[in-house]
User: What shape does this take?
Amino acid sequence: MKAKGYSWPARLKRLGVARSANERRYGVTDPEAVRVYGYHLAPPVGVTAEQLAEEARQEKKRKALMTDAVTKAYTGRDGATTGTSLTGGCRGEALKQLGLLRAEALTAVDRAQQQGWKRTEADRRAKAVNAKWSACMKKAGHTYADPHAAAGDPAWWTKGEGDSAARTKTRAREIATAVADVKCKQRVEYVTVWQSVETTYQNEIIRANKQELEDVRQMWRNALRKAAQVLR
Assistant: This one.
């Protein structure tokens, strides 16, 4: 980038302790968090609302530095096409040096994860516990087929519509729904069932694709080794 006369604005260092990517794999599960945030994500551990607001301001400034010319130098592409390929520009050169250009394609790990999830969704045990959860929610006054439908209710994600009182009412309804969601999951042992079923399928997929998955792991090990060498 420097050789082309530009610098790429580095990502901001994330505040606090990042939450586990699996925390919401089966929807909301934290009874304390939903009482405050409903279906919205809680901030990283140890981060205040003021810190989050300042982080958002800094991120806006960072993105303002990504002009069309800078972005083209970084990606090798213009405008809307910037995310369609990892092979162009300085980014492509870096990935090539690290041996990561194969990561552009759907990797064995991605396929394994998707296959495991789809098989779990279709499994009779997962469907049965979905039905139990839905019946529990209905008794609590909320009608949803499954936890994903509840979390994805458009009412929770519509920004800036209605007056303040209406938004406050919707927010309260969201929190009440999320609290009931977690209670019903606990009552029907939702997470236990889904995790057990999905883990079984994942282990089957791992055994069936052992070498391909090992190749991906080795690719990333090599990339980390090369990155360490570059940064010395």
